[in-house]
Amino acid sequence: MSNKFQYKYLILPLLSLVLSSSLWALPTTPQSSEVLLKQTMSQRYASNLTVNFLTNWHYKDVQLNDELSSKILDQYIETLDPNRVYFLQADISGMEQWRTKLDDALRHDDLGAAFDIFNLYVLRVRNRINFARQLIKQPFDFSVDEEYQFDHSEAAWIKDVESLDDHWRKRVKNDWLRLKLTDKEEDKIRETLDERFVNLDRRITELNSDDVFQFFMNSVTLAVEPHTAYMSPRNSENFDISMKLSLEGIGALLQRDNEYTSIARVIPGGPANKDGRLKVKDRVIGVAQGREGKMVDVIGWRLDDVVNLIRGPKDSVVRLELLPDAAGPDGPSKVIEIVRNEVKLEEQAAKSRIIEIPQGDEITKVGVIDLPVFYLDFVGRAEGKKDYRSTTRDVRKLIAEMKQEGIEALVIDLRSNGGGSLHEATTLTGLFIDQGPVVQIRDSRGRIQLERDEEPGMAWDGPLAVLVNRYSASASEIFAAAIQDYQRGLIAGEPTYGKGTVQNLVNLDDYAPVDKKRLGDLKLTMAQFFRVDGGSTQNRGVIPDIRFPSPGDASEYGESSYKNALPWTQIAAVDYQAVNRVSAMLPALSKRYQERLKSSEEFSWIYDDIAEYELKKDKKTVTLLEDVRRKEMDENKLQAKQRKERRYHLHGLPVPEDKDEEDTDTIAASTNSEGQVITETNDAQAGAETNAAEAEELPDLILEETARIVADAARLSAKKPMLAQNPGNKATVTTKPELVN
């Protein structure tokens, strides 16, 4: 019996077993309008190439065996049903027959099991959709004291249909209540929810074999390591767009979060960043085109389809309905409006400002360089252009300008800098050390390459701080780690992301037969970064010398949040000469910093948020009592309003109007039929500029405290007494918002 025949033989009894033992009122065969999806010959080629690259070229030693097969099965089930609300326990038990067989199937390019599991998944989802649509025809009683478990991802699989029905009853009831809390009428709520489930049904039935193949192959790559990924031809096109020098959209990176689409990163300099209201981890639940367009519910949509809805031509308007992360797991939604614009990644250049820190009767000028990304004009450099743009060139120029203005200390702000050019991370380090190694790179064969700063001298030899947060990654971590290892400057902020690996993009078409093109791309991890002291930036990230308090759990974001991330490890240190500018003064700097924290009302709010988070972080349920939910919502709104007013009063500024909610009277402006703004200056753009201006009026609490710390370092370096600082004294900020030319 051939392996292929035997494999199919095992699949058929499973479907019968699962459908009968789960006791669902579902047909055991698809309806006439449904088509069972099957793999194609091109997908066999793509699978073969992907597996070969994984087992031969991945940085990790990948063995295609029963252990990996088990991980692939778990990952595939999690990909399809991450919250465990479609499959029953009997379904999962039936899939156990494949736990140690997927490796054999991959060797023979046979993905029949993946397609059978997916076809069953479609049946289960459509059954839940039909059940939910029937529920919304009935009234709900919100005076019944019961709770909905919104996070079911780590719970046991539901055993029977009755229990699953009850879970979905509470889910739909919660959806209804959330809309009711926004004061929507009953008919409108019913219409919104029905449309949501109709759209989900349409989208699940529109999925094709390419989608199934991508789901499964990404389960294979994710079972190996989180930064390796297969991209279908369609997703490869989207990736190509994102890597071009410009995009037309709002300037935000999206990610899938169960059935939601959430914000992974707000791109510095983009429309969303300038507007200031869209935050990382906010969930997008609706998208509308123009100011009059209908809000389309996108819960349950594919990520690339949501991206396509949000992306659009320059000067057109998009409205987003959000569930803010700050409002909790099921807080009230809000609608914001953003005018799309061209997001030129080359324009995310370094900017400078000077903060004047009062220290007794004296003023210490602290230069700040805001660096959103490590950029380099590769083409201009290759062509030998004298004026090609680069991070190092621009930062050198800014430092020279600020030295002319008398700065005594410098802050490099790398918060939310996701990385970029390795060359620039190396040469930027060279502006602050004389000469020496910067980073080690070890490939899958164990060969080590050393990146060095070969240019003698420094652009800045004074007190230095590097400000980072949990969104600082890759090249940012290389730079921060080198500055820390050399003890050239102090690192302040939060532990960084912890991405210490290198990926290459492999076009599978380059290795395919002429008649089997359009196979997609493979993003493959092929090397790892190591610090000059031998430790890795992988997984742990860079730990600050002075750590700022921050709400939330750092383990929920970053490399350490991935269960199969490559571990931290170390290799031999290289020969480098530390300058030891930090260790001697760190105790004094930390003491002064802690004293200021104790007297800061704004920092006390952060500690309050941390305490509240610790109380609620393990909570996976929400009450379905309307009066309790309304009270919680009102209390949260009141606290936010009081904090906002207090913060403006602390800094002697008038409290601006709250522009978070959609207000057609204040944002109305002329648009054409496609939703494009046809007035030269429109109210929405003015609103966005006002929001940005308001954000700039208030000092950046974290940046200002970092400036105070490095100002203390400047005083210590000059062997001057540490003069008493009055936390109430305002720091004066001189900003140069224009880009370096």
Task: Write up this protein.
The chain is of the alpha+beta class and 741 residues long. The protein folds into 3 domains: 3-225, no CATH class; 232-347 and 663-697, Pdz3 Domain, CATH 2.30.42; 348-502 and 518-594 and 704-736, 2-enoyl-CoA Hydratase, Chain A, domain 1 (Alpha-Beta Complex). It is built from 22 helices and 22 strands. It has a 7-stranded mixed β-sheet, with helices on both faces. Strands 4, 5, 6, 7, 8 and 9 form a 6-stranded antiparallel β-sheet that branches. Strand 4 and strand 5 form a beta hairpin. Residues 1-33, 240-246, 660-696 and 735-741 have low confidence and may be disordered.
Query: In CATH terms, what is the fold-level topology of the largest domain?
Result: 2-enoyl-CoA Hydratase, Chain A, domain 1
Q: Identify low-pLDDT runs.
A: 1-33, 240-246, 660-696, 735-741
Distance between the terminal alpha carbons, to the nearest Å?
Answer: 71 Å
* Strand coverage percent: 15-25%
Share of helical residues: 40-55%
What is the domain tally? 3
Give the CATH architecture of the largest domain: Alpha-Beta Complex
Strand order of the largest sheet: 20-17-16-13-12-11-22
- The general outline is globular
Q: What do we call the CATH homologous superfamily of the largest domain? A: 2-enoyl-CoA Hydratase, Chain A, domain 1
- Tell how many strands the DSSP assignment holds: 22
Give average pLDDT, whole number: 83
CATH class of the largest domain: Alpha Beta
Using the CA coordinates, give the radius of gyration. Answer: 28 Å
Please, what is the oligomeric state?
Answer: single chain
Sheet of most strands = 7 strands, mixed
- Annotation field: number of helices: 22
> Which structural class fits the helix and strand makeup?
alpha+beta
